[in-house]
Amino acid sequence: MVHRVTTKSWVSLAGAPTPDVNLALVHDGDADTLAAVLEAIAEVGCPTLLMLAGRATAQANTLGPAWVSAGSMPFMRADITATSRRRDPRVRRAGRDDLDAVSAMLGDAFAMTAEVAAVPLHPVLDPQADMTTWVLEDQGEPVSTVMSCQVDDAITLWCMATPQRFTRRGFARALLADLMARAEADGVRVGLLGATPAGKPLYDATGWTTVEAWDLYTNGQTANFH
Fold first, then answer.
1. pLDDT tens for each residue of 9-36
2. Can you give the residue range of the structural domain that contains 108?
3. What is the DSSP string of 139-154?
4. Angle subtended at Cα 177 by Cα 149 and Cα 211, rounded to the nearest 5 degrees
5. Within 10 Å of residue 117's Cβ, how many Cβ atoms?
6. SS3 of residue 78 by DSSP
7. Which of 5, 151, 157, 158 could form a disulfide with 147 if both were Cys (CB 3.0 to 4.6 A apart)?
8. Is 21 left (phi over 0), alpha (psi -120 to 50) or beta?
9. Is there a contact between 114 and 107 (Cβ–Cβ < 8 Å)?
């Protein structure tokens, strides 16, 4: 994997053959910043979902013909105390033994194979990783998952996934409420996330608001944006 973070951009490339797990964000209008991100993507040679935010959106016409619009992603924020918060005994932290189960859930929810979904999961499930993967089990079966990362008093959420056969049963809502309760207990005040079209209704209903929209471009074919 390639993971680079600066004050103007970040790049997280798993190297898998789908842009939905190879992500890059530029939020500064500096042309050199975008050029450096595009160079990193070219070096890895994987299809990528490129997000342009803030002043970077004006540089879309410099991307070249390989990059096509994939719509937009709402970037959302919540004050933790304004969200639904309730601990749920069915929620636990995932470990390496959960690789197959979490990969299957991500694959189902994001229209990719479990093998592809497993590629970025390997480092995340490391006990020393900065990100944490959570699983909600119903009657012993994993039915919903989400990743989180806490920095100071803020938490970011990634890859909330509930397989289609388990949707509309309140599992994702319960998992999110449990995570917000844990975050509040850890001193978190603010939550941040980028929402997919499938996930946004849940966030809208649980105290999250859209701050801005990130313009999406891809040099591959994304299953989750259009």
1. 999 999 999 999 999 999 999 999 999 9
2. 79-211
3. TTEEEEEEEEEEETTE
4. 60
5. 26
6. strand
7. 158
8. alpha
9. yes
